Hints:
Mean pLDDT: 82
Shape: elongated
Distance between the termini: 118 Å
Radius of gyration: 33 Å
Largest sheet: 6 strands, mixed
Low-confidence stretches: none
Structural class: alpha+beta
Amino acid sequence: MSSPVISPYALRVRDLAHRPGEMREHSLDIQVPDAMGAGLIAVREGATMQLDVRLEGLHEGVLVSGHASAEATGECSRCLIEISEPVEVDFAELFAYDASEEFDFFVHDDLVDTEQVVRDAVVLSLPFQPVCRPDCPGLDPVTGERLADIGERRASEIVDPRWAALGGFTAGGPDDSEETASQTTEGQERSEADQAE
C-alpha cells in the first residue's frame, strides 16, 4: 500500500504539539505544484517559492506565521506585453488540535499544511489589472501597435461614422469663411435699411 502524497507546504509538528512555548523555524524552497492566481498575472506552476516559516506551540494548536516570496508572470493589461513582478507576502494562521467552527485550519496526522494559507495570501496580493509601468499608454485602437513604441507619432483617431457628416462644418475652407462673412454683411445692411424706413 502506497503512502499518501504529502504536500510540499506541509510541516511536521509532532515535537510542538501540546507543548505551549515551543518554537521552531524553517526556510524552504518549493517548486509551486499548481499555479497561484487565475487572472492576467500569476505565480506559475513550477516557479520557485521561498518560505520562511515559524511554528509556535500554543494551548489551542500550532501558530504558523511566515513570509513567502516568488516571481509572478503574466501580461500587461494595457499593452499585452509579457511582464513579471516580485511577490512578497506575510501570513499567520492558527492550526487547531480539535475540529471546531472557531477555526479554519487544523493539525492533521502531526502535520500542518500551509498551502491554502500561502495561496490565499499570494492571490490576494496580485494586481487585478497589472501594468508594465504605471503610465503605460496601451495600444493604438486602429493599428494595435504599442503606443510606447510609436514614440512622438500621434495615435490614430477613430471617427464615429454617425458624426462624419458634421466634419465638414468644422473643417470648412477659406471659401466657406468668405461666404459666411458676405452673408453676415448683407444681413446687417438689410437690418440698417429696415430701421431707416
